[in-house]
Design a protein that fits this description.
8-stranded mixed beta sheet, alpha/beta
Length: 273
């Protein structure tokens, strides 16, 4: 069962999901990717025996109307506000994709709040191709931000065409449905393009994520997807040695199925336990 709450942060309130409210064990703070929401963590939360807390970062999901500033340091500060509001002194922190960069900055700037850190296909420096725009690099995930959809079924069909979502599931469908706002036939994504653009620049060139990665202990666990954002061979991190951490490649996963697929979710849940 998922409990939703609202946490005050500068500019408004952050939407926060908690699974396993009454469960025993160390709490986990789970941080999603650049155009995602807390529901990216649904399959992992179903396998994790303890409590798992996942905010919708500002500019996404139920926090979609929150204004900037954006960037990894701002999101890390929001995550501290979530821990404070829920009375969590210290948590295991896991981040996927851009969430990995936020998690690393959180550990660097607020080390007393992070018991363990787990990075999932994100958090290590990435080289952005020169002169490439957001749509080229992120594909349908960012293209949808300027689109309107006549129905939920049409939006699901849009995502079904994404090569990384070939294995459709109820968890993926819930994730996709949650992203919509508005009324038919003018449905749209809740994700703010301004937030995505600002965060994209910061995770590639910002000083905070670079400093955070440099400070990570070499033994920090890094779960790497075998395939990339479009299910292409090689993955987001084609050279595991260049990551500089303790890298485990999860076979058969892409950048999304490392959370949504059975094998990926099991691997992430095991790393948290």
């Amino acid at each position: 069962m998922t409990r939703m709450s609202r946490v005050p942060v500068p500019g408004g309130e952050l939407a926060v999901a908690t699974w396993g409210v009454a469960a025993a064990g160390p709490p986990v703070l789970a941080i999603h990717g650049i155009t995602a929401s807390h529901l990216a963590w649904g399959p992992v939360a179903a396998l994790h025996p303890g409590p798992l807390v996942a905010p919708d970062l500002r500019g996404r999901g139920g926090s979609g109307d929150l204004p900037g500033p954006y960037g990894m340091a701002a999101h890390a500060a929001d995550c501290v506000a979530v821990l404070d509001a829920l009375g969590i002194e210290r948590a295991t922190v896991v981040g996927h994709s851009m969430g990995g960069f936020v998690a690393a900055v959180l550990a660097h700037r607020h080390p007393s709040r992070v018991g363990r850190l787990v990075l999932v296909d994100g958090g290590a420096p990435l080289a952005a191709p020169a002169d490439a725009d957001l749509e080229t690099l992120l594909g349908p995930a960012v293209r949808r931000l300027d689109m309107r959809f006549a129905s939920r079924a049409e939006y699901r069909d849009f995502w079904r065409q994404h090569p990384a979502f070939a294995d459709w599931s109820p968890a993926v469908e819930s994730y996709v449905d949650y992203d919509l706002t508005g009324t038919e036939p003018e449905l749209r994504s809740r994700v703010s393009r301004d937030a995505v653009r600002a965060d994209f620049v910061d995770l590639h060139t910002g000083a905070a994520p670079r400093a955070a990665h440099a400070a990570l202990p070499p033994g920090t666990p890094f779960l790497r997807a075998e395939r990339g954002m479009f299910d292409e061979p090689g993955g987001l991190y084609p050279d595991p040695a260049a990551v500089g951490l303790t890298v485990t490649t999860v076979p058969g996963t892409n950048h999304y199925s490392i959370l949504f697929g059975d094998d990926g979710a099991k691997a992430v849940a095991a790393a948290l336990s």
